[in-house]
């Protein structure tokens, strides 16, 4: 019996003026899978992900999630379908604490007269955010500290905690290890594994093949707006798959 895709994109095309960025790309993501999307700059991988996350609308092609046809006019449409995206800049508010960032746009309002006046229930938000962060293998000093004081790895932890709370099906991560040191990169790779342990499917856009080999089960390689091929991965020491990826990227 064939494996059922959680997300399926078929014949996706996207143009910006005369430039054809995506040329009939097919893409699939399975349940509880970590999938890497690879390609040089200009390959079309970020554009494909922005189509899936509702940031761009395709000029042609179809998208289905859980077997249901979808059209995402906005990023909110994708979120409502259970797709959460963490972009490279993390989209965190430096002047807010962890709980406020996790609940940004979805604040809990207190009961009774507090609800009538629109007062935010900071206590409940901090308790639930602390629970989400505690599931991560990284140290956050305090839940009520502004994230401007955090390291790169700690900021990734906050963004991922938000994904665990709101990403019901899929989490997309755009270059999650970019500009991080060796130690923090290792922690972020652990966090990607944590997402999988929460029964989420994960798409990671990466340039570093070694990092891909550590966390992903499959890699889709793109080149010049097309899907070049797919490689099944068997772990960091799988040199055959590593060499296949390198050949597809050339």
TrEMBL record:
<dbReference type="InterPro" id="IPR003439">
    <property type="entry name" value="ABC_transporter-like_ATP-bd"/>
</dbReference>
<dbReference type="InterPro" id="IPR003593">
    <property type="entry name" value="AAA+_ATPase"/>
</dbReference>
<dbReference type="InterPro" id="IPR027417">
    <property type="entry name" value="P-loop_NTPase"/>
</dbReference>
<dbReference type="Pfam" id="PF00005">
    <property type="entry name" value="ABC_tran"/>
</dbReference>
<dbReference type="InterPro" id="IPR017871">
    <property type="entry name" value="ABC_transporter-like_CS"/>
</dbReference>
<dbReference type="GO" id="GO:0005524">
    <property type="term" value="F:ATP binding"/>
</dbReference>
<dbReference type="GO" id="GO:0016887">
    <property type="term" value="F:ATP hydrolysis activity"/>
</dbReference>
<feature type="domain" description="ABC transporter">
    <location>
        <begin position="7"/>
        <end position="249"/>
    </location>
</feature>
<protein>
    <submittedName>
        <fullName>ATP-binding cassette domain-containing protein</fullName>
    </submittedName>
</protein>
<keyword id="KW-0067">ATP-binding</keyword>
<keyword id="KW-0547">Nucleotide-binding</keyword>
<dbReference type="InterPro" id="IPR050107">
    <property type="entry name" value="ABC_carbohydrate_import_ATPase"/>
</dbReference>
């Amino acid at each position: 019996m064939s494996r059922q895709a959680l997300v399926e994109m078929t014949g996706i095309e996207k143009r910006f003026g005369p430039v054809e960025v995506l040329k009939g790309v097919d893409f699939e993501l399975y349940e509880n899978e970590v999938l890497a999307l690879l390609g040089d700059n200009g390959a079309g991988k970020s554009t494909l992900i922005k189509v899936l996350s509702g940031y761009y609308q395709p000029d042609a092609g179809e998208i289905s999630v859980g077997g249901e046809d979808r059209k995402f006019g906005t990023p909110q449409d994708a979120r409502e379908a259970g797709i959460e995206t963490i972009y490279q800049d993390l989209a965190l508010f430096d002047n807010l604490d962890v709980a406020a960032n996790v609940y940004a746009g979805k604040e809990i309002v207190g009961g009774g007269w507090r609800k009538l006046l629109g007062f935010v229930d900071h206590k409940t938000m901090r308790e639930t955010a602390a629970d989400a962060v505690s599931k991560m293998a990284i140290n956050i000093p305090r839940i009520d500290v502004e994230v401007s004081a955090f390291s790169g790895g700690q900021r990734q932890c906050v963004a991922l905690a938000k994904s665990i709370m709101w990403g019901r099906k899929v989490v997309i991560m755009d270059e999650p290890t970019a500009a991080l040191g060796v130690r923090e990169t290792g922690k972020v790779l652990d966090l990607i594994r944590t997402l999988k342990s929460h029964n989420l499917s994960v798409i990671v856009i990466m340039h570093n093949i070694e990092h891909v080999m550590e966390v992903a089960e499959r890699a889709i390689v793109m080149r010049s707006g097309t899907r070049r091929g797919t490689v099944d991965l068997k772990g960091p020491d799988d040199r055959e798959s590593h060499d296949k990826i390198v050949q597809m990227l050339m």
